[in-house]
Amino acid sequence: MTAASWPANDRAGFPVAASKSTTSPAMRLLISTAGTLTKALGTPPKESAPTVRLHASGTRLDLVGDKVTAEALDRWLQEAKRGEVMLLDQHGAAFPCGHSFDGEIVETPESRELFIDFWLDTSHPMTATILSQIDKGYEAQCSVGITTPQGVPVRELSFDQSEGRAVGFIKDPRARLEHVAF
Asked: Which of 14, 18, 42, 167 counts the highest number of beta carbons within 10 A?
């Protein structure tokens, strides 16, 4: 994608440039989750690239004490299906190693879990490593990166009786799933 073809504004409504900066007006929140990079899927119908399915997040308490609401997961699923979610090899990476093209929410008796399908950029140096790790049965921990407009809190801290403690709930409708990193 060339700088000329970048959108004028990001999903939060702020101007963007070809080199997305972590100092942009959009606040970036990194949430550790129990998500995992689980398996290779094959090739999507319109791409000639390898694909992976990733367990991105869910309504269960995550590793940093947050829960994502079912409504936020539904919004994030639609973002993933529109191809708006990047796959990064680390938070703050300059270049994505893949982009979303589909996903699904899996219901369990205890929670709702978001799985996202990504096609991998075969020119990215991490693609071969990702596929090799999957072939070897390695499950990488994943973390989601969320953006909100400046000044908008991402978490609403409140007591959760089911957990017996304070929990940060991710539910603001302006919170957008920017990327998943592993």
From this structure: 167
